[in-house]
Design brief:
Length: 516
């Protein structure tokens, strides 16, 4: 039996069993660090038990949803594992979402209780105050707030890890409505075990966790991957290049980030004339956005390590493929698929394409979600009867099995590693009383993408770009707010009235070049 097969065969039933195993094996080993606090695996086990008892005391039952409005913290980790212990679903939601977005998710998932990581997040505190949440203290973790009990339909509880949902991660859909991606214990543990094995994660590793645990990349790959391997996770609520530079100098061994984080780190070092030091660093990787090869070369030259690249999406928990430590690449390949994951590249008719041909990537394997919560129609549109996930991403596979992303057929914009779907932003802008309709496109910049909105105003109405920007900022998470808004008398349209987004994308690119 291969090492990977042994890992898959030995995956536990629930995600909370991973820290419990290390607490029994090495209780004094460090598990979590956050600012000045450090928890050993034995202390983490005690914190999870305390959080579990609080959940039960608050009326949380198996099959309930437990929503956590959060930024990275020890309290968040304890609640995620505590929900697992009682067979509830952890709904992890970034506190930096707008009030409207938080409320839409809450109303859709109907949680028994909502928790807020108020000690580490001003935004979480603001949401807690708005919802009149009460203070809550749990032994071993930072202070929290908790909302009142709500009506909650209990979902079925399954003994099989392949069927029991562990986490509900919301991702905006192509219609602008959020979709709750149901990720099972097996989905998450598969990524933790197998992708962690390919990164060489071991108990001696000290991993920098600034990717939000509310994002599947941060949740499964960074957080659960480290805990499954028995390593130490440094929890960081927000990215700051100076803080990362200091952590690298103090012994971080593994860093995973989106390209924009690497770009900001390189800029910080250059502006301040700092030589970045990382005496123990052994692994760097990126994902969540296109990787600029110039940036890749700068990072690799700085640290003397290869910058590994990968591909994934929330519906795949999220990892589909990643480059390998022992096979460094100078191109922008996202690597071969993980062991046990199948990939097809197909044409619009669903026919398989050959090496080098561009088509839609279809994925099947233990990483593929259980479906979208309370949305069977959307689920059936992306999941085939025999288990293939239609990703909507355009890719090609070369003869050596390595994948390359070409584009996103759903017009998805990836800004600083976060997904921005144009219809969602358009829905908000279109609600403004002076707007007839709008069109949102992405504009590539170094190691990132920007959101650009074109707005057609109503006849006889006046509205400034600044006013529309403020309107959007009140209703959207900061990363979804357009970088630029262009007010037009008429949006370009074809004979059928369809907005010509390709032309607008060219205009946006031209505007960007003029400003550089």
């Amino acid at each position: 039996m291969s090492d990977v097969a042994r890992i898959i065969a030995g995956l536990p039933r629930r995600i909370s069993h991973a820290p419990r195993a290390w607490a029994d094996r090495a209780p004094e080993s460090p598990a979590l660090r956050a600012e000045d606090a450090t928890l050993t695996y034995g202390e983490l086990k005690a914190a999870v038990i305390a959080a579990r008892d609080v959940l039960l005391g608050l009326g949380v039952r198996p099959g309930d949803r437990v929503m956590i409005v959060n930024e990275n913290s020890i309290a968040l980790v304890a609640l995620i594992f505590a929900a697992s212990e009682v067979d509830a679903w952890a709904v992890v939601v970034n506190a930096r979402l707008s009030p409207r977005e938080i409320d839409v998710i809450r109303d859709h998932c109907r949680p028994r209780r909502v928790f807020y990581t108020v000690a580490v997040s001003p935004e979480a505190r603001a949401h807690a105050d708005r919802h009149r949440a009460a203070p809550l203290c749990i032994d071993g973790i930072e202070p929290l707030a908790v909302g009142a009990a709500a009506v909650c339909d209990v979902e079925p509880v399954h003994p099989e890890a392949e069927r029991q949902v562990a986490a509900l991660i919301y991702t905006s859909g192509t219609t602008g409505d959020p979709k709750g991606v149901m990720l099972t214990h097996r989905n998450l543990l598969y990524i933790a075990g197998v992708s962690g094995y390919q990164r060489g994660l071991v108990a001696a590793d000290h991993v920098y966790a600034v990717l939000p645990l509310s994002h599947s990349f941060g949740l499964a790959s960074t957080f659960l991957g480290t805990i499954y391997a028995g390593g130490c996770l440094e929890l960081v609520p927000r990215f700051d290049p100076a803080q990362l530079a200091a952590a690298l100098a103090c012994g971080i061994t593994v860093f995973q980030g989106v390209p924009a984080m690497y770009a900001r780190l390189m800029e910080y070092a250059q502006v301040n004339g700092i030589l970045l030091e990382a005496p123990r660093l052994r692994y760097l990787s990126t994902g969540g956005a296109p990787l600029d090869l110039t940036l890749k070369a700068r990072v690799e030259e700085t640290f003397g390590l290869g910058l590994n690249n990968g591909y994934g999406l929330t519906e795949c928990s999220p990892t589909v493929s990643q480059t390998l430590i022992d096979n460094p690449r100078s191109d922008d390949s996202v690597g071969p698929p993980l062991p046990g994951v199948e990939i097809r590249i197909v044409d619009p008719a669903g026919r398989d394409l050959g090496p080098g041909e561009v088509g839609e990537a279809w994925v099947r394997g233990p990483n593929v979600m259980a479906g979208y919560y309370r949305d069977p129609e959307a689920t059936s549109r992306v999941l085939t009867g025999d288990g293939w996930l239609r990703t909507g991403d355009l890719a090609r596979r070369e003869a050596d099995g390595y994948l390359f992303l070409v584009g996103r057929s759903k017009e998805l914009i990836i800004r600083s590693g976060f997904n921005v779907y144009p219809p969602e932003v358009e829905c908000v802008l279109n609600d403004h009383p002076a707007v007839t309709h709008s069109a949102v496109v992405g504009r590539r910049i170094e190691a990132n993408e920007e959101v650009v909105a074109f707005v057609q105003r109503k006849s006889g109405c006046t509205v400034s770009e600044a006013e529309l920007g403020a309107y959007a900022a009140d209703r959207l998470a900061p990363y979804k707010v357009p970088t630029a808004i262009v007010v037009m008398e008429v949006l370009p349209a074809g004979p059928t009235g369809k907005i010509l987004k390709k032309r607008l994308a060219e205009m946006a690119e031209g505007m960007g070049q003029a400003n550089r």
